[in-house]
C-alpha cells in the first residue's frame, strides 16, 4: 500500500507545478480535482505514522496521522476546495499557484510529526501566502506584505531556535506535548503565539489580510492561524497561561472592530476574537475544552471564510469595502446578502448554526473548571462578536443608508463557493453529531438543551436590542474614513520616529565632537609650526620650496655643462 | 435616475413591522425565562434575566468604550501612507527634518 505513504501536501505541490504549465479549462479542472482527490485519499488513510526516516541521527516524521491532525486535514481540504471554487474566475497564475502551495504547506504542517518538518512548512506558509497579498499590486499591499513576511519569518526563526534547544535538551525532535518548563518550551510557545496572533503580536493579521486580493484573503483566513491553533493544541494543552491570553484575545479586538471602517479589517479583528475562544479551550485542556477548541477551529474556517467571501464579493463588484461608502446593497445583491447573514449567524453562534455547537463547548468547559471570570469575559466577547460581525458587517454593507450603488450579485462560481460554505454552516448547526464523531475525544456533549439554547438566544437578542437602541439614540459610532491606531503604531510609527530622532541626535553630537577635535588638532599643528619657525630659520616657511627646486636644477645643469666641456 | 423599483425596506412600514416582531421576540425570550426550568451551572445564572441584561449592558459598554477609544486613536485615512508626518501627539517625537545634521551626510 505505497499510496498511503503519500503525504497530503504532495498532491498540492504537484498540482501547483501542473498549474504553471496548463491553461484555461484544464487548469480549472486540475485545481478542482486536487483537493477532492486528496481528501478522498485522506479518508482512506488509517491513523499512525506513515513516513519516517533518519536524518543526522534524528528521527524525522513528515507524515503522522492521528485524531487531532486529521480533523485539521479535513477542514483544510474543504477550505482549499471552497477557496478554489471562489477564485475560478481568476486568470492569474501567480495567485493560483501561491494558493495551491499555501494550502499544501498548511497540510504539511498539520501532519508533521517532528519539529524540523514543522519548521519547514511553517516558513513555507509565510513565503507562499505573501504572494496572495502582493498580488493586489498596490503600494499598500506591497508594504503590508513586507511587514507580514518579516513577522512570519521571525516566528519561523524563533521556532527553529526553539527546536534546536529542544533537540539539545531531549535528544529528539518529535513534535508532541512540550509544555512551558524549559527555554525550548518558551521559544516554541512564542513562535506559535506570533502566528496565532496573540495580543501585541496580532497586527500582522489586521494589517495584511485586508490588503490582500479578494480571493487571497479567503485562503489567508483559513490556514495560518489554524495551523498555529493546531500546534498549540498539540504542544501546550492545559497550559493555564493560554486561558488568560485567549480571554484577552476574545475581548480586546471587538473594541477595534466596532470603530473600524474597512469591513474586511473588521473581519480580521473578529478572526482574532474567534481564535481567542480556541486558545482558551486549549488552555483549559480538558477533553471537552480541547474538543471545543478543535471543532471551533473547524467551524471558524468555514464561517469566517464565508464572511470574507461575501465581503470579497462586495469589494469585487463595487470596488469598495469601507462601511462609509457602502449600504443598501441588499437591493441588487440579494443572494450575497442572505449568504452573508448565514455566515454572520454562524459566527455569532445562533442556535442551529455552526458556531453555536462548538463555542458552547469552550464556554461550558470554562465554567466546569471554575474559570468564572474568564467565562464572563467569553460571554461578553460572544455578545460583542454578534455586535460587530453579526450585525455591523451585514448592516453597513447591505442595509443602513442607501449608498446608491447598484452592483449585481457576483459571478456564479463565487456564489457557489459561498453557497457550499453556508450549507455546511447550517448542516453542522443542525446535525452536530457528524462533526462530533470526528473529534479527538468522545464526551457525549449535547449543545441543544433548553437552558443553553434559551441563554444564548437571550444574550444575542438583547445584544441586538442594544444595537437598535444605540442606533436610534444616535450613540452608535458612525463609519468614518479613518485609520485607527493599534499596536502596530509602535513599529510603524513610533520606533522609526524614535530611531530617526535618536540618530539625528547622534549625528549632531558626532559632528560637534569632530568639529571640536579638528579645531584642537589645528591649534596643535599651528602651535608646533610656530615653535619650529622660531627655533630654525633655515627650515622656516619663508624659503619657498620652489627656490630649492630651482637650485637643484642649477646644480644639475652645471654638471651637464661640465660633462660637455671635458 | 430612472424610476427606481421600490425595495423591501424602502417602505418605512416594513421596517416598523420588522422592529415590532423583534421587540416581541425579546419580550417572549424574557418571559420564557420563567417558564422553562433551567438547570444552571453557576449562581450568577440564577439572577433575574441574567443573560438579557448582561448582553444588553455588555454591548452598550462595548460601544461606549469603543467610541471613547476612537477619540484618541483616530487618524486620517492615509496616516500610514504619508512618510514621517509630524502629527504624532506624544511630544517626544518632533519633525526631525528641521534638525541640522538629521540626514547623515559625511563631509
Overall description:
The complex is a heterodimer of chains A (566) and B (107). With 566 residues, chain A is mainly α. Chain A has 20 helices and three strands. Chain A has a two-stranded antiparallel sheet. In chain A, a hairpin with a 2-residue loop joins strand 1 (48-55) and strand 2. In chain A, helix 1 runs antiparallel to helix 2 and helix 4 (93-110) packs parallel to helix 9 (214-235). Chain A is elongated, with a radius of gyration of 32 Å. The termini of chain A are far apart. Chain B has 107 residues and is mostly helical. Chain B has a domain at 8-78. Helices cover 45% and strands 2% of the residues of chain B. Chain B has helices at residues 12-35, 50-73; one strand at 74-75. The longest helix of chain B is centred in the first third of the chain and has 24 residues, at 12-35. Classes of the chains: A mainly alpha (566), B mainly alpha (107). Chains A and B meet through helix 10, helix 14, helix 15, helix 18 and strand 3 of A and helix 1, helix 2 and strand 1 of B.
List the helices and strands and how they pair.
The complex is a heterodimer of chains A (566) and B (107).
Chain A: H1 9-21, H2 24-44, E1 48-55, E2 58-65, H3 67-86, H4 93-110, H5 115-134, H6 139-170, H7 183-195, H8 203-208, H9 214-235, H10 240-259, H11 263-284, H12 287-318, H13 334-347, H14 354-368, H15 372-398, H16 412-430, H17 433-436, H18 450-473, E3 483-484, H19 488-535, H20 545-565
Chain B: H1 12-35, H2 50-73, E1 74-75
What's a quick, concise take on this entry?
With 566 residues, chain A is mainly alpha-helical. Chain A is 73% helix and 3% strand.
Question: Could you list some keywords that capture this structure?
Answer:
heterodimer, A: mainly alpha, 20 helices, elongated, B: 107 residues, mainly alpha, flat
Amino acid at each position: 500500500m505505497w499510496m498511503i505513504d503519500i503525504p497530503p501536501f504532495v498532491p498540492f505541490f504537484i498540482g501547483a507545478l501542473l498549474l504553471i504549465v496548463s491553461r484555461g479549462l484544464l487548469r480549472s479542472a486540475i485545481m478542482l480535482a486536487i483537493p477532492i482527490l486528496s481528501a478522498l485519499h485522506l479518508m482512506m488513510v488509517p491513523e499512525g505514522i506513515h513516513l519516517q526516516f533518519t536524518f543526522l541521527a534524528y528521527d524525522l516524521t513528515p507524515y503522522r496521522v492521528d485524531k487531532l491532525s486529521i480533523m485539521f486535514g479535513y477542514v483544510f481540504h474543504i477550505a482549499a476546495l471552497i477557496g478554489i471554487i471562489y477564485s475560478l474566475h481568476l486568470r492569474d497564475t501567480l495567485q493560483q499557484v501561491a494558493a495551491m502551495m499555501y494550502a499544501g504547506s498548511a497540510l504539511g504542517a498539520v501532519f508533521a510529526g517532528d519539529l524540523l518538518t514543522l519548521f519547514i512548512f511553517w516558513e513555507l506558509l509565510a513565503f507562499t501566502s505573501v504572494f496572495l497579498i502582493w498580488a493586489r499590486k498596490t503600494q499598500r499591499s506591497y508594504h503590508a506584505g513586507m511587514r507580514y513576511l518579516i513577522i512570519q519569518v521571525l516566528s519561523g526563526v524563533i521556532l527553529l531556535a526553539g527546536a534546536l534547544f529542544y533537540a539539545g535538551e531531549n535528544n529528539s525532535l518529535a513534535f508532541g506535548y512540550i509544555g512551558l518548563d524549559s527555554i525550548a518550551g518558551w521559544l516554541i510557545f512564542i513562535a506559535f503565539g506570533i502566528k496565532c496572533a496573540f495580543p501585541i503580536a496580532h497586527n500582522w493579521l489586521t494589517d495584511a489580510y485586508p490588503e490582500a486580493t479578494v480571493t487571497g484573503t479567503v485562503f489567508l483566513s483559513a490556514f495560518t492561524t489554524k495551523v498555529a491553533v493546531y500546534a498549540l493544541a498539540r504542544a501546550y494543552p492545559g497550559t493555564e497561561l493560554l486561558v488568560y491570553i485567549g480571554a484577552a484575545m476574545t475581548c480586546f479586538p471587538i473594541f477595534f472592530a466596532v470603530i473600524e471602517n474597512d469591513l474586511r479589517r473588521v473581519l480580521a479583528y473578529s478572526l482574532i476574537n474567534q481564535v481567542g475562544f480556541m486558545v482558551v479551550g486549549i488552555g483549559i485542556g480538558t477533553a471537552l475544552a480541547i474538543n471545543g477548541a478543535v471543532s471551533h477551529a473547524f467551524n471558524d474556517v468555514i464561517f469566517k471564510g464565508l464572511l470574507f467571501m461575501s465581503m470579497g464579493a462586495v469589494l469585487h463588484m463595487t470596488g469598495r469595502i469601507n462601511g462609509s461608502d457602502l449600504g443598501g446593497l441588499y437591493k441588487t445583491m440579494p443572494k450575497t446578502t442572505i449568504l452573508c447573514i448565514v455566515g454572520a449567524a454562524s459566527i455569532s453562534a445562533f442556535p442551529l448554526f455552526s458556531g453555536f455547537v462548538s463555542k458552547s463547548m469552550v464556554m461550558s468547559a470554562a465554567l466546569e473548571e471554575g474559570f468564572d471570570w474568564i467565562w464572563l469575559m467569553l460571554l461578553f466577547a460572544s455578545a460583542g462578536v454578534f455586535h460587530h460581525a453579526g450585525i455591523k458587517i451585514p448592516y453597513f454593507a447591505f442595509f443602513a443608508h442607501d449608498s446608491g450603488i447598484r452592483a449585481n450579485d457576483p459571478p456564479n462560481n463565487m456564489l457557489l463557493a459561498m453557497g457550499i460554505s453556508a450549507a455546511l454552516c447550517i448542516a453542522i448547526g443542525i446535525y452536530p453529531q457528524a462533526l462530533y464523531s470526528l473529534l479527538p475525544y468522545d464526551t457525549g456533549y449535547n449543545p441543544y438543551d433548553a437552558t443553553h439554547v434559551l441563554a444564548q438566544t437571550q444574550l444575542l437578542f438583547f445584544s441586538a436590542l442594544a444595537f437598535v437602541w444605540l442606533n436610534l439614540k444616535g450613540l452608535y459610532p458612525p463609519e468614518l474614513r479613518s485609520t485607527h491606531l493599534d499596536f502596530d503604531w509602535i513599529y510603524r510609527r513610533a520606533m522609526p520616529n524614535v530611531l530617526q530622532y535618536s540618530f539625528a541626535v547622534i549625528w549632531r553630537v558626532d559632528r560637534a565632537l569632530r568639529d571640536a577635535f579638528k579645531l584642537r588638532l589645528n591649534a596643535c599643528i599651528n602651535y608646533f609650526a610656530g615653535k619650529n619657525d622660531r627655533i630654525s630659520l633655515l627650515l622656516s616657511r619663508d624659503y619657498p620650496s620652489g627656490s630649492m627646486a630651482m637650485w637643484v636644477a642649477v646644480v644639475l645643469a652645471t654638471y651637464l655643462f661640465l660633462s660637455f666641456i671635458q | 435616475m430612472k424610476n427606481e423599483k421600490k425595495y423591501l425596506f424602502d417602505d418605512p412600514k416594513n421596517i416598523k413591522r420588522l422592529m415590532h416582531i423583534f421587540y416581541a421576540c425579546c419580550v417572549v425570550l424574557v418571559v420564557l425565562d420563567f417558564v422553562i426550568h433551567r438547570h444552571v451551572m453557576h449562581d450568577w445564572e440564577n439572577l433575574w434575566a441574567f443573560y438579557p441584561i448582561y448582553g444588553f449592558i455588555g454591548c452598550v459598554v462595548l460601544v461606549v468604550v469603543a467610541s471613547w477609544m476612537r477619540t484618541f486613536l483616530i487618524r486620517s485615512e492615509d496616516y500610514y501612507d504619508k512618510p514621517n508626518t509630524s502629527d504624532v501627539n506624544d511630544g517626544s517625537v518632533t519633525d526631525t527634518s528641521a534638525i541640522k545634521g538629521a540626514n547623515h551626510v559625511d563631509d
